[in-house]
Amino acid sequence: MLTSKERAQLRSEAQSCDTIFFIGKLGVSDEIIEQLERAINARELIKLGVQESCEYTAREAADIIAPRLEAEVVAVIGRKFVLWRKSRKPKSEHVKSPARSVAPMRAKGGDNRSKGGIPRARDGMPHGKGAAPRKGAPVTKSTAKKRVTRRG
C-alpha cells in the first residue's frame, strides 16, 4: 500500500511519461497482461489508456489489471491510469546515475567574495544590479548615468 506522499511523488513522475498501452474493444487478455508484466518489470511506473471502444472505464480497467500484475493504482484521470510496482530485478541490474556532490562556495584570494559567496561592494557600488550608488562614492560614467536617470 502506498502512502499519500509516495503516491503524489509517483503521480508527478507519471506526468512526463507517455502512454505505452491502450486497452481496446478486446478488453484485457492474457497477452496484454504478459506485455504489461514485461513493461512494469522494466519501468516500474507505466501509464495506460482506455479507448472509447472498450467496454471498461479507466477505473474498471485499472481495478482489473492491478491485481493481476500485483501492482498499485497510482492515479486514474479521464481515460488514462497509472500503475506502479517495485521492480523484481536485483538492484545490481538497475542503472544508477552517479551522485553529484556540490561543494559550498569558498572565498578565494582576489575574487572579491565574502565567506558566504556573496560579492562584496566594490568601488562604492552596493550589491545587485541597478542599485543606486552610495552618497560620497566616486562618480564614474555608470554611476553618473544612474544618478541622472533616477532624478529625472
The helix tally amounts to 4
| Strand neighbour order, sheet with most strands | 1-2-4-3
Low-confidence segments, ≥5 residues, pLDDT <50? 95-99
Element string (H = helix, E = strand): HEHEHEEH
* CATH architecture field of the domain at 4-88: 2-Layer Sandwich
Give me the count of strands.
Answer: 4
The Rg value, from CA coordinates, equals 29 Å
CATH topology of the domain at 4-88: Translation Initiation Factor IF3
Q: Can you walk through the features of this model?
A:
The structure is a single chain. By secondary structure, the protein is of the alpha+beta class. The chain has a domain at 4-88: Translation Initiation Factor IF3. It has four helices and four strands, in the order αβαβαββα. The chain has helices at 4-14, 30-43, 58-69, 141-151; strands spanning 19-23, 45-50, 72-77, 80-84. It has a four-stranded mixed sheet, sandwiched between helices. Helix 2 (30-43) links the parallel strand 1 and strand 2. The longest helix is centred in the N-terminal third of the chain and has 14 residues, at 30-43. The termini are far apart. Mean pLDDT is 77; it is low at 95-99.
